[in-house]
Design a protein that fits this description.
A seven-stranded parallel sheet has the order 5-9-4-1-2-3-10, sandwiched between helices. Strands 12-11-13-14-15 form a five-stranded parallel sheet. The protein contains nine helices and 15 strands. It folds into two domains: about 160 residues, Rossmann fold (3-Layer(aba) Sandwich); about 120 residues, Rossmann fold (3-Layer(aba) Sandwich), CATH 3.40.50. Helix 3 crosses helix 4 and helix 5 runs parallel beside helix 9. By secondary structure, the chain is of the alpha/beta class. The structure holds flavin-adenine dinucleotide.
Length: about 300
């Protein structure tokens, strides 16, 4: 393979298997970097080597960026795959600065062309895809959930060691306040109830939560429900600027289906849409569509499925 080395850096152990599988499909050697202890490192499957970065009380995974960059620079060339979380993007940016390269966020359709890693990225607000490759020796990519299939037969690495070097931080934590909102990990959810602006009032989220509960699903939403209405945390919205998901089933309720939202849900195995407007674009992307009022459909579904 033309790509000799890929570093996979992940702050989410559930996303790690996917990234390692993607890295393995294009590189000879895959090194996973995790934030945790030796026991966590030994549980990682699908990488040739694992380096773990212990994160002490009051410290942050980002503090390890300098040490990770020094390790990567020991290779003449390398690609770096980072999961597309808020922390992941922060680490990706810091690493790119230290490696004198750039970050391609939300990369997709990775392949190798003429010895270079080429990926596709959504641009112009989701209306076009641009193919890109790095011109230098190093390149940092971030990938959302579902970018790769985890390998079924991945084995644990035999080469497990602590990351050389030491963490260093330019800031000190003075306080930590717990947020009231409960975060969900939509990137790895198998079933999602996706709520859009078809929902008239915040209280009505309760019926969507009930439906999610009977389905064993997580609740996610379109961007305006999180960003404008603030009914759900920002980590709950899906789309090109939100989380990219790949559940077995997504039930899309009162979402029009704009391209920016579709870009986050179109890798779902089965998309079921409910919208009262039969011309809503969501129906073009749905496997099953029901023209109807969510205020009638959702209670009926809860009753049937309970
Ligand atoms: C650069 C950029 C990036 C963006 N990134 C994202 C992103 O990552 N994610 C994202 O979601 N959006 C994103 N957006 C916003 C996006 O363009 C849309 O505005 C947004 O997705 C619309 O959300 P919605 O479908 O919930 O609302 P609307 O478009 O208002 O649709 C509401 C739908 O509900 C239906 N409806 C109303 N009442 C009912 C009822 N009782 N029963 C059934 N159906 C009903 C309506 O028919 C309508 O189709 C982005 C926009 C820009 C410009």
């Amino acid at each position: 393979m033309a790509i000799s080395s890929v570093y996979v850096i992940c702050d989410n152990m559930e996303a790690l298997a996917e990234l390692c599988a993607g890295a393995k499909s294009v590189a000879d050697k895959v090194t996973a970097v995790i934030f945790g202890d030796e026991a966590a490192a030994k549980s990682v499957c699908g990488a040739d080597a694992v380096r773990y970065c212990p994160v002490g009380e009051g410290a942050s995974p980002e503090d390890w960026t300098g040490a990770i960059a020094d390790e990567i620079k020991k290779e003449a060339s390398a690609a770096v795959f980072v999961n597309n979380s808020i922390r992941g993007r922060c680490i990706a940016g810091k690493l790119a600065a230290r490696l004198d390269t750039a970050v391609m966020t939300n990369a997709a359709d990775l392949c190798e062309e003429d010895g270079k890693l080429v990926c596709s990225r959504t641009v112009y607000g989701g209306t076009a895809h641009r193919k890109q490759a790095f011109s230098g020796a190093y390149g940092v990519f971030t990938f959302g959930g579902g970018a790769f299939e985890p390998a079924a037969d991945a084995a644990a690495a035999s080469d497990v060691a602590v990351m050389p070097g030491a963490p260093a931080s330019s800031y000190k934590r003075v306080a930590l306040h717990e947020k009231k909102e409960v975060g969900v990990n939509l990137a790895v959810a198998k079933r999602i109830v996706d709520v859009g602006r078809g929902l008239a009032k915040e209280e009505d989220l309760e019926m969507c939560r009930q439906l999610a509960s009977v389905l064993g699903a997580e609740v996610g939403c379109s961007r305006p429900v999180a960003e404008n209405n603030k009914w759900l945390p920002k980590t709950s919205y899906m789309g090109i600027t939100g989380v990219q998901v790949k559940p077995d089933l997504i039930l899309v309720l009162g979402v029009s289906g704009q391209v920016q939202h579709i870009g986050g849900i179109n890798k779902s195995k089965v998309i079921v849409a409910v919208n009262k407007d039969k011309a809503a674009p969501i129906f073009k992307n749905a496997d099953f569509g029901l023209v109807g009022d969510i205020y009638k459909v959702v209670p009926a579904l809860i009753e049937k499925l309970s």
